[in-house]
Amino acid sequence: MEGSSGGLTQPAPSARAFARAWTEEEFIRTMRTGIDPGGHQVQEPMPWEMIGRMDDLELAALYAYLRSEEE
User: What is the pLDDT of residues 17-55, one digit of tens each?
Assistant: First the structure.
């Protein structure tokens, strides 16, 4: 997969994989700060800045939805 700078990029893990690996609190904190539970900066294409503007109820609903769906 070619990145925007012309180099190769790794495919992004699915949001469902993140939701299944993290607690709801970790998911919400990551979407608000852009820092994952391991202390790493969330990379593109994860739209964490846009998602982080959701309120707590919306983020909790998104987390529940992502955990409930089959891949």
Answer: 888 899 999 999 999 999 999 999 988 778 889 999 999
Among 38, 36, 42, residue whose Cα is nearest residue 12: 42
User: pTM, whole model, 2 decimals?
Assistant: 0.74
Two tokens, residue 48? 């964490």
DSSP state of 13: P
What distance in Å separates the CA atoms of residue 13 and residue 66, rounded to the nearest whole number? 13
Whole-angstrom Cα Rg for the chain = 13
> What residue type is 26 in one-letter code?
E
Q: Where are the alpha helices (DSSP H) in the chain?
A: 15-21, 24-33, 48-51, 56-68
